[in-house]
Amino acid sequence: MTARIDHRQRGFSLVELAVVLVVLGLVTLLLVRFLGTAAHEQREVASRSLLTRADDALLAYAMVNSRLPCPDSDGGGIEDCAAGQVGRLPYKTLGLPDANARRIRYGVLRRPASRREDADLTDKRDRYDPLQVIGETGTELPLNPATANGLDLCWALRNAGQLPLDTGYLHVTRAAASSQPEAHVAYALALPRGGGDFSSHQSGSTPAFDSPRRPQGPTYHDRVLAVGLDQLWTRMRCGDNLAAAGHAHFNAAASIALMHVAMKDYKKQLAISVKLAEANVANGAGAVLAGASATAGAAGGIADTIAEGLLTFGAVATYKVALASVATAAAVAVTITASVMTGYADSALTAAEQAYEDVDPRIDEAAALEPQVLEHAKTGDAAGLY
């Protein structure tokens, strides 16, 4: 028996091969797009992380050095205070280990003025003058020796917030209208998306940054982080520290000094009270004597009236005796009242003299406490924020 041999071969048809190729093409396309999206997202995450770390480094630098760093002018990572308001981030000055930070555009508000009105955030100088009591008056005076610290940076932020908008100094523009300035900021950071070139304001040298809220578009692709004046004020806790070290402590010193002066004035008033009490005692003694004299006079009048009555057999002088008796009783009452008032005056004199003596130790304590509290207030100012 002869076996039959099947010469037909099995394999992919053209249709099946075409389907496989289409599927492989779609998978490849999706994979390429996924990898591209993942790489883009990775770059975005890296950019956000870099800006966040730069922001944290700037805040830490400000807290430690009581000022913000100047921009870097040549990309070497070292601040250059002759560079103006805008340049590259001085990442080496900040202690950032990532050299990619040199790509960050950095701007800082530098608006110099007289010492009390100064708003140059890169200049560490003594600006804040707390209230000090000198003698019996209070005035705002710089401490001696003057100490520049975080309180003075807070004062510079306060000054900057009170100044009008000037496009010659660092500012951001409006989110919906990038050609219009919106407000000054303490500092701003920017990175171009995708590692390319900057667009819009970040590509120039003017002290302007786009708003962090500006939407992305075909002609704009920068990432901006801007820290406002009030935002940095809050992050550094300027309100709490300035109120405590700059006002509360010196207010306590002022209160002690004013209390010292008030207690001296009170002692003068007590001296007057002692004199008045002595005068009241003298008046009471005089009233007692006057009452005794009146009593004696009235008693003499009764004796005269009785003698007269004996001579006239009492017919005429009876009413006179009655009147003289009333006068005597009134004089006795006056004497008794004067004696009681004299007792009160004596008690008042004793109390006034005791109060006069008691106030001296309080004055001495206030005199000793006044310089101590003022010294503690100066120590608080010298300590700064942290």
From TrEMBL:
Family annotation (InterPro entries): N_methyl_site, Pilin-like
Chain intervals for the UniProt region annotation (Disordered): 196-217
Transmembrane segments: 12-35
Polar residues composition-biased segments: 199-208
Assigned keywords, A-Z: Membrane, Transmembrane, Transmembrane helix
A Pfam family this chain is assigned to: N_methyl
NCBIfam families referenced in this protein's UniProt entry, alphabetically: IV_pilin_GFxxxE
The name this protein goes by in its record: Prepilin-type N-terminal cleavage/methylation domain-containing protein
Organism: Luteimonas cucumeris
Species classification: Bacteria, Pseudomonadati, Pseudomonadota, Gammaproteobacteria, Lysobacterales
